[in-house]
Fold these 2 entries.
Entry 1:
Amino acid sequence: MSTETMSTISDFNQKSHDETDAEHRVQVELLNELCEAVKKNAPPTVISDIFQQLVDYSKAHFLSEELLMRQMSYDDYEDHVGDHVRMLEALDEIAEAQASGKSVLVSGKAESILKFIKQHIATRDQRFADFLLRGVK
Ligand SMILES: [Fe+2]
């Protein structure tokens, strides 16, 4: 492989890592914002606005992360995507309950999925970030 090709791959990995990292930061910020709003007893419309942003952002982010994992033939793909499916299902359930007027965001279920997302970012996403950086030499 030529030096030029090597540095192109390395640049791609570095760029992918930085973008994914930035997306995770946005996700965590939205999660924290949501928890704050719930704690402060913010109006339901404010809470559902932040929640909707979190859902939309998570969907887009998961898709781009999954595409990147496939491009890189990532070894933890199946389990990682399994986490994404589980998170989206739980977020959808919360959205449905919200829409029907039940304030479930403060319930244990919502809290546990929010914790799960943070945990996912700190573990599986971190593993993928490290994997991307290993390709940067
Ligand atoms: Fe992920």
Entry 2:
Amino acid sequence: MQRLLTAADDTPRSPLVITPGCPQAHKQAGADLGFLDRHGVLTRGLREVMTHHILFLFNRLGISAADTWLLATAAVHVTFHHPFDTQTGYQPAGTTDSRVNAVNTSPTESGTSSAAVLRDQLVGTLEQRGHIRSATVERAFRTVPRERFLPGVDLETVYTRRQIVTKRDPNGAALSSASSPSLVADMLEQLAPRPGHRVLEIGAATGINAALLAELTSPGGKVVTIELDQDLADGARASLGRAGYDTVEVIRGDGALGHPAHAPYDRIVVTAGAWDISAGWWDQLADDGRIVVPLRVHESGLTRCFAFDRTAPHQLVGTTTPLVCGFVPMRGTAAHTDHHVRLDADVVLKLDATDQPDRAALSSALSHPRLERWTGIQVSDADPIGHLDLWLLVHTDRPFGRLGVGDTARTSGLVTPAYRWAGAAIYHGATIAYLAFQDVGNGHHELGAIAHGPDATTLATDLTNLLDQWDEAGRPNQPTVTAQRAGTRPAERGGISRSDTVLTISF
Ligand SMILES: C[S@@+](CC[C@H](N)C(=O)[O-])C[C@H]1O[C@@H](n2cnc3c(N)ncnc32)[C@H](O)[C@@H]1O
């Protein structure tokens, strides 16, 4: 195992020569996973994804469960310098002559980690990656025991950086979750609650964020959190009580209405995907208050988390660069249905129904051959291009949509958008063109357009022209956003109009 793990793939005597192509495929898969992880896209942790992948590979190679166990145990031994025991997988502490550097030293000697150790590690990672930036948020994260809010979830999972879904509907769609700690930290930094503040949270879920808010507003503050579902509200109240945060008020109700009894609020934080800034939030936010809200700015589900300061009774102005995020959608009176056209068993185009697409024509788009146009514009994995799809939405004259693509369509090469979760696209009649990446090596990708349909050339050219404009404009990634209470001013051209709010986004 040690020889295998340290083998170079380019020497004739390498044990890897028996699987030509495999080392390169693994390198590529590792680079792709790293890219997705850095962009916060993975819904499972890296370790879980890789374990799944390896088990799949072993199954295909016909390796038995017993041999898989043996190989995995040996790999753990070599990689982590863990002592080895044939019964348990570990043996009393001893030295190894492994040449493989440990990649993770998180487990304690007993092989498990205490909550406090894992919490400190999580905080360290969140700081390193720039999600925690202030001493106050750091202290709150070090104090709140996440495991008390996630009973039955194993400690390692509790302290990963990923979202943990805690309730699903009968079709398997997520209804509630503990949001990813990275996103929670980012949102708390945006919100900047201070001691003495009154804070309203929408979407209590497990109660973790309410506990962090209680830490941040103490002493003298007040936290009210609203949860739509009775079972979740009861659970959050019980966990908050157990963890010593019984001053937090958990209300069972519809968060879109707010909770006037404790208004005005210095801070409002919405932790479910909202379609509008509701009248209740406009009414209950203090004159100099701040609201942080993940808003779906387009019916395709394109969502950004904005922090707005109230600058006038009917005006909110975006204060920080919005966050790229995904959230379970709000239900209740604020629920909003998505619209999509199915292009293939595994591919949908999510779009704005008011654009009135020719659904029948559009659904045939993928039966037309694929046309690729590349721009020569290169981006690196580290480049800040998180708001490119928002820029395209704001600047295109064509109807905009986003592709949702399953694994089968992607691996078969039928549809290969830049990101699976955000395949920005434009469409017209029976033609679509979508944003694509082409790997050019060294962690760089070239931007381009892939089109299908009778007007493929025109739409691919339109999309690449937009990409050229974006590049020439200096690759803007700082949208400026304002929100005006609906009906308080004549409608502006280009405004995104909702029942209670008109949003204006520019770059
Ligand atoms: C992503 S979870 C919230 C995460 C949570 N704040 C945390 O600490 O990680 C979203 C929650 O919003 C709740 N929700 C959805 N619509 C709601 C509404 N109209 N009013 C109140 N809560 C709502 C869901 O039931 C779910 O529990």
